[in-house]
Specification:
Helix content is 31%, strand content 34%. It has 116 residues and is α+β, with helices and mostly antiparallel strands. It has a six-stranded antiparallel β-sheet with strand order 2-3-4-6-8-7, covered by helices on one side. The longest helix is centred in the first third of the chain and has 14 residues. The radius of gyration is 13 Å and the shape is globular. The protein starts with a strand and ends with a helix.
């Protein structure tokens, strides 16, 4: 696992604060990340001190993954679908700057909606 960049830590904290306002969302620490759950289902892991793919990324899970959403993810340059685990449906999103916040939140919402 890689150390999260300072900017990513700040952006992840902002994203996490937003996620905690959504219904039925709870968190648990997990190896330098914070896991976000809708009820009992995990849908995202945001960096606190560590990241999975690169120093500027977080991971999210969409299950089931609709084909049209997977195609959209493949077109999104900030999402790593090549190195994701297809059976687990975990994807990595790279936060390059605060400008990526809105798009990151959209993808987190997709993960949240599919975690019913």
């Amino acid at each position: 696992m890689l150390r999260a960049s300072e900017e990513t830590k700040q952006l992840a904290a902002m994203l996490g604060n937003e996620l905690l306002t959504w219904p039925k969302v709870s968190t648990r620490p997990m190896f330098g990340l914070r896991g976000y759950y809708r009820g009992k289902k995990i849908f995202a892991a945001l960096p606190v001190t560590r990241t999975i793919k690169n120093p500027n990324s977080f991971i999210f899970r969409v299950e089931p993954m609709p084909l049209e959403l997977l195609e959209q993810a493949r077109k999104e340059q900030r999402i790593d679908t090549e190195n994701s685990v297809p059976s687990a449906k975990w994807l990595s999103f790279t936060l390059n700057s605060e400008a990526d916040f809105r798009e990151a939140l959209w993808w987190l919402n997709q993960a949240y909606e599919h975690a019913k």
